[in-house]
Predict the structure.
Amino acid sequence: MNRAVAKDPEEGGRGLGAEVGPGGAVSGEERLARAALTRIVEPGDERGGRWLRECGAVELVRRLTGTDGAAERLGGMTPKRLAGYRLRAERAEPERDLAAITALGGRFVCPGDREWPSQLDDLGDVRPTGLWVRGPRDLRLWALRSVAVVGARACTPYGSHMAAGLGAGLAELGWVVVSGAAFGVDGAAHRGALAVGGATAAVLACGVDVPYPRGHAELIGRIAEQGLVIGELPPSDHPTRGRFIQRNRVIAALTRGTVVVEAEYRSGSLVTARCAQRLGRLSMGVPGPATSGLSAGVHELLRGEAVLVTDASEIVELVGDMGELAPARTGPVHPRDLLDPVTARVLDALPGRGAADGREVARTAGTSADEALGRLYELHSLGFVERDGEGWRLAPPATRRDDARRGGT
């Protein structure tokens, strides 16, 4: 077997120990070993990741399953820990798992494969051993232009509305919406992207053939048909509390930035955002009511390094390429805003009630009588003022609005 450093064909990779054949493809032996390790080593096991980096997948599987004492020489290995790995290794049947994913129309993507997203290498020793993938899209290409939208499961109608809007808006701007397919914000973000025919990917904390939560079986099926369903765990494996937490690091590393819509102080969504920060990705938050406990975690995030965002264009301005700017935001422009400073001062000099002659207006406005008179006639033509005998008064509000529109201001 030819041992070489796995590299992304365009981005160079980070050399974390994948074994590749002469043509650059991951060898069959390497793929089988990595598939087996997804049964043996839990996602996010830093010790296992270090052994994988030091030994390579094939050698690590040999040591964990062999009886020659080589496993005991792994740094940090104890008899109790080894017994746990070997117990799990008894049920590792990588050929069957690979056949199962193929039957689903999916594949097992390893470091060194062309489809492997090299940004996952930023995770170092907690990088996924490999990813089980369902869906017709190219994982690496989709990940290059992706944003995570995450948040509370028990979200409010406001949170659901914002997540769906962000999902739809990002998809319409050509971005892939990544989330965890959970109830609440995750599901709303996926549905928002799907509603506009956009791109979305779900990262699961279980096998990609396990619809979890059960209530999202149809949604996960739609994502698998139109986008991507991704997981570190082999087919048929079920989620646990710890696996949900570990899943979040993959979401953070895979995407250019993470947006949190609603989250309490203790929330897995905040774990995702803070992991994104540690990896040098952007973390963003959508503000909510100051009195809402479901927005308390987001607000705490915003008090740190997270950036406040309110729509998809603001997100893209942060994570996108040069020139992808959000539109300028201004309040409404009223006809009075278009007056030059002297004319506006003459208008301000008229009393709120009653009339004033031209000399009084000039004195208050600080202009000459002739200039004040000229400005008053201009204001009359625009519908702001009207004659009252020898004096001038403000026009009724309705008249001012209608005449100003007719005046072309």
